[in-house]
Design brief:
The structure is a homodimer.
Chain A (H helix, E strand, L loop, with lengths): L2 H13 L5 H9 L10 H4 L2 H25 L6 H9 L1 H33 L7 H17 L6 H28 L21 H11 L8 H4 L8 H30 L11 H10 L3 H34 L13 H21 L4 H30 L4 H25 L1 H33 L18 E7 L5 H13 L12 E9 L2 H14 L4 E6 L6 H14 L5 E11 L11 H10 L5 E9 L3
Parallel strand pairs in A: 1-2, 1-4, 2-3, 4-5
Helix pairs in contact in A: 1-8, 1-11, 1-13, 2-9, 4-9, 4-11, 4-16, 5-6, 5-15, 6-7, 6-13, 6-14, 6-15, 6-17, 7-14, 8-11, 8-13, 9-16, 11-12, 12-13, 13-14, 15-16, 15-17, 16-17
Chain lengths: 612, 612
């Protein structure tokens, strides 16, 4: 990826938060006012808070420069924390990120739909439906294989940047010339308004605004995707991202304050929409701003659809998630990862009624926990490895870790009752499950391990000592059955004459409720000269599985030797049309299910393809 | 079964229709009246119609005596029609019966709940929920293995008979002495009232009442269950059933007319309940009548849970339903049959709001189609085989066939718009599917058939000419993998040294995205002295299945000989706890799915059971 495409691919998540960051600060500050006239005072705090958050962003971007240099093959929080702090911090960071990806989808899509409903308020009552629809379309697109291509991303990201910078420039011109269009603040009461402007409330506003830092990690995850020199290019993109986003955020908050914008208590119209209306009117430029915002937010959500399976694959390789997730390129792993992500995001959108404000408390806390762990890990790394200039790096990372740690605590405390508690409860639960999975794999691995000595001394691993009985259940004397018999005979090296003394014994078995039918089959069998024994099992109660299992039990009692291995060989008909499967494979499936838990019993399917 | 138990088991379905037959006649007749005062005139027709239906019943019972003699091993309509009239009439009868069983459940349960809500009108709004609950309980009971036991059936059936005959006797005494309790007809308008008393309406009333003949076939299905002489005992039970039911039906209609009972327009209270109230008051005897009615109706519904799988098994043996249904004693077949029956019955109860009156038009038409076909089959049989007294039998069956045929047409015409059309549309659709299934099996059987000559001349059936390649995909060098290798070596008779020139070649395959890991595994493999080749497949896109499939393709291109058979041998870990399955079997499942449609590729699962 070039820097231009890299910016579009990895920065969209972060830059898109400019669509709601200013508004979320204002939505908290506005609670410190009674009635419309008293609004101005607390809202003027928006600008200082924005400055504080942009300063935070500068610290985080600087701190991540060290990570990018140290981890040129990709340094997400899970990797950095596991590497330097140990298993538990790594898993906490990992679970925070998994939650974060789900929330990125829910928040970005909700904000994207809010940009649409701002332009078309008539759609507002359908926002949950629209958001769910958008997630479903995104999911189907990803399942069908639309991956993030640089070009596809580049267009919306740069359209957004041009549209927004144009809007801000024109807004600053209007401010300088005092020619803002007339603005009427939206009416209505804020739920919970009339509070005192306490430090707690200000910190809560700061917490809400710090959602602006989400998505910062994307660049350090994706370093290997850049053109060489990868780390250098990634570092430049990260700085560009911070600069662009910081400028938009500051400009937005400044203009909103100057115009005197008040967030809409009904949540129908966004602050960005109000700002655009007051600067450029509701002409084509307004719609350009709204649509490009929606598009960018949808693409921001899309990054999670790539990041979630990637993280799951890394964690699965380490044994903390089911192993099949590690085959990231595999349909099953990708599909199940995407499916889980989409289902949870839809669940959140429905529960929180597609409201960004309601989702924010859950979003921010996990992100800052991951930041703190990742940067603490970098501090530890510098101390341990002492790379060149380690004192500088360590100081930068220590500042970053402290700052983000403080914010994590501030967010956790001020947003606790508003929803952060859910994440703080969920994270240890996820960690517990991850550890349980790892423990299981560890036990399994220990149990399965072989030392060089026992390799050929254990009788069950020694081919010289294993004997075989092959059971072929069959419904009729037909090609599929004969193919299965021939398969068994040739595989075991038995040809013309069955060799009862040999290593493998082959027995064909027919289950019937009508002994006359069975006898007729046996006669045909003998007449045809098939050189394998046919056993007829009578089943007066018209069952198939239980007589076979009883027969296997009897065989085992005859040969209680642990070195006898039973193979049940099922001739399977595979029809030409999928719906015909229902007519053929049910009994085979049933037998396989019944045999699954039988020790030392292998099951072989020998397919016979029907052409018609 | 003795006659006493046989009556209880096989007659409950028919006798239980006395709970609604009188009412259904009246509900049609009442439409020919305007206002409450004009009610009496049309309702007096109830008694003549009842007499006509009881005469029909006598004809059918007499006609079925011939069937019972001719088919001592069970003569349901499907068997009799297939046997004597050919495939298509047999399938029409079969599909009519399958629909009939579903409707027996829906109607009997709805009527049973109506008997409850008559006694406790407060439950009326919950009738659909109650009916669905009853079907669910019945289904679970049947799935858990509660089959019809004679004793369990005998009690409710005889309690009902005693309760009802007591009620009728006391009712006749009250009629003779003119001491009926005071009766007020229920108020309200009948939907569609004020029609002229046309012949069409009278025929419609007759059609509704002819629901009284449902369940008559049960005895002839169950002949083998009787004590010897089976046919004789079954014949006696059939006559007893007709006599009991006929007396109850006549007595009920007579008393209802004498009291002047009018059906409840709101459907809250049944006619039987009104009658019982007017004869014995609302004391304990009233509740005895209501509860025993409900119990009998639930047991009548239960007979379908035995009859449906039985018919499905007979039809599956003939190839008209998926083969696994023929293993009637098998859990899967029984479960899926019961499941389909219950789901359809619940669907009907919900759609028709648990109203017997709404369901009746669907119920009767299928039953009479089956009657007509069965008795026409008997006529044909007498003509063909000319057994002793064949002229008498043939005449009786011809009368039966004509009478039921006329009723089938009458029901079809008078109830067409009320719902009979659904059944008349559904029946040919079911027949079409049944024929499609049979055609598929026929094609498959022809394709699979082997003549004696080709038995050993076809190369793919000749063990002498088959060669094998065994592929063992493995994730690690551990016990499960070594067990699989030892399994393959011993099964093919290869022991100490791999024999490249032999009949079977064994190759272990490891898929990795990290070539260094792969090389390390290979080194360990060689050092350990495993005498089977290990192939490392690199998968840069982190997929598992596609590199393996490509490898199999390459193998096949190397050996384009049709006599080479590939076996993919999967070492499968079977964990001790079910939830741990998710951690192990996903990749194996995925591979199996991908290999399912590959010709000449067998799949073997070699289980390794984890103890912990």
């Amino acid at each position: 990826l070039t820097k231009i495409k890299g910016l579009a691919v990895f920065a969209s998540d972060n830059i898109s938060s400019s669509a709601y960051a200013t508004e979320e600060i204002m939505r908290v500050l506005v609670l410190a006012s009674v009635g419309a006239l008293a609004l101005t005072m607390p809202l003027t705090l928006t600008m200082p808070l924005t400055l504080a958050i942009v300063a935070m962003l500068a610290i985080v971007v600087t701190s991540y420069q060290q990570t990018i240099r140290a981890y040129p093959s990709g340094g997400g929080s899970y990797i950095v924390a596991s590497d330097n702090l140990g298993v538990l911090p790594g898993l906490i960071a990992g679970s925070a990120l998994l939650i974060d990806y789900v929330l990125t989808v829910a928040v970005s899509i909700s904000a994207g739909i809010a940009a649409i409903t701002s332009a078309f308020p008539v759609l507002y009552p359908e926002r949950v439906l629209l958001a769910v629809g958008a997630i479903v379309i995104l999911t189907l697109g990803n399942l069908r294989g639309i991956r993030e291509s640089g070009t596809m991303f580049a267009a919306p990201c740069y359209i957004y940047l041009f549209a927004i910078f144009g809007l801000l420039a024109f807004g600053l011109f209007r401010w300088a010339t005092g020619t803002f269009l007339p603005y009427t603040p939206p009416e209505g009461e804020f739920h919970g308004a009339g509070q005192a402007l306490t430090l707690f409330l200000i910190l809560r506003a700061f917490s809400s605004g710090s959602v602006a830092l989400t998505g910062t990690e994307a660049v350090s995850n994706g370093i290997p995707a850049f053109k060489p020199p990868e780390s250098r290019n990634a570092g430049i993109v990260l700085i560009l991202m911070g600069t662009f986003f910081g400028s938009i955020f500051l400009g937005m908050s400044f203009l909103a304050n100057q115009i005197g914008i008040v967030p809409d208590p009904t949540e129908v119209e966004t602050v960005v929409s109000q700002l655009a209306r007051t600067v450029v009117g509701t002409g084509w430029y307004y719609y350009l701003v709204q649509f490009s915002t929606t598009l960018l937010l949808i693409l921001a959500a899309n990054t999670s659809f790539a990041d979630f399976p990637r993280l799951a694959s890394i964690m699965a390789k380490d044994g903390y998630l089911p192993r099949h997730f590690s085959f990231r390129g595999e349909r099953l792993a990708f599909t199940s990862g995407i499916g889980v992500l989409a289902a949870l995001a839809i669940f959140l959108v429905i529960i929180f009624q597609g409201s960004v404000t309601n989702l924010i408390p859950l979003y921010t806390v996990g992100v800052f926990v991951a930041f703190t762990l990742s940067q603490s890990g970098m501090v530890r790394r510098s101390w341990r490895l002492r790379p060149p200039r380690w004192r500088v790096s360590m100081t930068i990372n220590a500042i970053g870790a402290t700052a983000t740690g403080v914010v994590a605590v501030v967010v956790g405390v001020t947003k606790f009752a508003l929803g952060a508690w859910m994440v703080l409860v969920l994270m240890p639960m996820i960690v517990f499950v991850l550890l349980g999975i790892r423990r299981h794999y560890g036990r399994a691995q220990r149990e399965l391990a072989v030392s060089d000595e026992e390799m050929f001394t254990r009788p069950d691993l020694n081919p010289e000592q294993l004997h075989h009985v092959i059971i072929i259940p069959l419904a009729d004397l037909n090609r599929a059955a004969l193919r299965a018999v021939a398969y068994a005979q040739s595989l075991t090296g038995q040809s013309a004459h069955p060799d009862e003394e040999g290593r493998a014994r082959i027995v064909a078995v027919h289950v019937t409720d009508d002994i006359h039918d069975g006898e007729a089959l046996k006669e045909r069998w003998v007449r045809a000269g098939v050189e394998v024994d046919l056993v007829i099992l009578e089943s007066p109660y018209r069952t198939l599985v239980s007589p076979l299992l009883r027969y296997l039990d009897a065989l085992e009692r005859q040969q209680p030797d642990a070195t006898v291995h039973v193979t049940v060989l099922l001739p399977e008909y595979l029809p030409a049309h999928w719906w015909e499967h229902l007519l053929h494979t049910q009994t085979a499936l049933q037998l396989k299910g019944a045999l699954l838990f039988r020790p030392r019993t292998a099951v072989t399917s020998v397919p016979y393809h029907l052409r018609d």
